[in-house]
Protein: Probable membrane transporter protein
Organism: Portibacter lacus
Amino acid sequence: MEWYIYVIAVAGGLVAGVINTLSGFGSAITLTILSEMMGLPGNISNGSNRVGVVAQGISGSFGFYKNGRLEIKKHRLLLTCCFIGALLGVYVALNVSNEQFKTVFKYLMIAVFFVLLIKPKRWLNPPNAEAKLNPWIAIPLFLALGFYGGFIQMGMGVFFLLITVLVGKYNLIDANAIKGFTVLLYSVVVLAIFHYKGLVDWKAGGIIALGQLIGGYLAANFASKFPKADIWAYRLLVTIVILAIFKLFGVFDYLF
């Protein structure tokens, strides 16, 4: 590979680490770099992408935990459901193409966009002193979230925040903190499975992971300390969803 690809990979990983820690969809950047610039096949790009997901999960979770924004014990049900769902999702990812799902996915993102814009105050400092999901609602929702994360990962953060903030009434920053740790927990196992199947390019994934490691920590540290971090996280979330819609519908290809 040319030297500049390494620079782009690290820089792209850093941006993806920030985006994933505060909202989601950073994998759109890393998967593009892995497949389009590094020339990896789709399934190996998917597996190699998990190296960076684990790296940013470690640094981001550490940043949130160090600043008192990550409480693990009170989220055991959520973590367990996502973990089990992810194992099912990675099994499907190893055996089924996700191309047909992407067709449905782009229309789903339009719905997500409108949900974000309707009553935006719901996303800013909702009451979370007793943030709690009904188990009958939480179990199927987080099993489905985990399945999606194990299957394709891209956009997992956005869907996770939709459920924890709008349904569970979590504060946006606290939701991001538990989101990062949840993804880290199942991604370690998912990465091991992809590696066992020979679908991880550790060199390519490791280069991007270096940037994601830095980006995850910087974003978690910022979100934990900055008083208006929830506002910026919300703005970033809306921006990322808009850009994702443009990309999925080929707007950028048309313009450039």
In short: The chain has one domain: 3-255. The chain has eleven helices and no strands. The two ends are 25 Å apart (CA to CA).
